[in-house]
Write a structure and sequence with these properties.
single chain, 9 helices, 8 strands, 4-stranded antiparallel sheet
């Protein structure tokens, strides 16, 4: 996907507004293991993931809890940094060598003041992130481990080839032992 395709898939923009947003984008290539945001730092950018894979997680008492995986075409943002200009709750780590576009948050906020179309693009971006967060929370509260795993298989089967099982288990809110049991049960159940 090209950057214009990714931006337009978030929310359609007129050509002039798209050009203004594209002018803010700086291409960057970062290695596997690079941290885009840290939970102890103020986020100053948003990123558009053109190629690669990222994991969003929080550290709690010597363990990491994975919230989300983002693949090609995702816009990566610390919502707390974006909305409150405060320290992030989460850390975003690249799980593969990645090509991204970096946009300065202050420049983006300034553009919102002058272009209503870009401001609406930003609003829709945040709404989508909140919706994903809500869906993940509801799944953890009301779906079994097996249901959460089969949902992941249906929605993002390629993640199992690209992500360590420990991260998958954390994302599903289960231990690796439980994940192994769920996988074994599903394997036995399939013809």
């Amino acid at each position: 996907m090209t950057l214009p395709d990714i931006l337009q898939s978030t929310h359609p923009l007129p050509e002039a507004s798209l050009a203004k947003l594209l002018a803010l984008a700086e291409p960057v290539e970062l290695p596997k293991g690079a941290l885009l945001f840290r939970d102890d730092q103020l986020a100053r950018h948003i990123y558009v993931l053109q190629h690669g894979l990222a994991r969003i997680f929080a550290r709690r008492e010597e363990r990491e809890v994975t919230f989300w995986f983002s693949t090609e075409g995702a816009v990566l943002v610390s919502i707390r940094g974006y909305t409150e200009q405060a320290l992030s709750y989460e850390t975003i780590e690249l799980l593969e060598d990645s090509r991204l576009f970096r946009l300065d948050m202050h420049a983006l906020q300034a553009l919102y003041q002058t272009d209503v179309h870009v401001a609406n693009w930003g609003r829709v971006l945040v709404e989508r992130v909140w919706l994903q967060t809500e869906q993940q929370l509801l799944a953890r509260q009301f779906r079994s481990a097996t249901e959460r795993y089969t949902d992941l298989l249906r929605q993002n089967p390629q993640l199992l080839q690209r992500v360590a099982l420990g991260h998958i288990a954390s994302y599903l809110g289960i231990t690796q032992v439980t994940l192994s049991r769920v996988r074994a049960q599903l394997k036995q159940a399939s013809p």
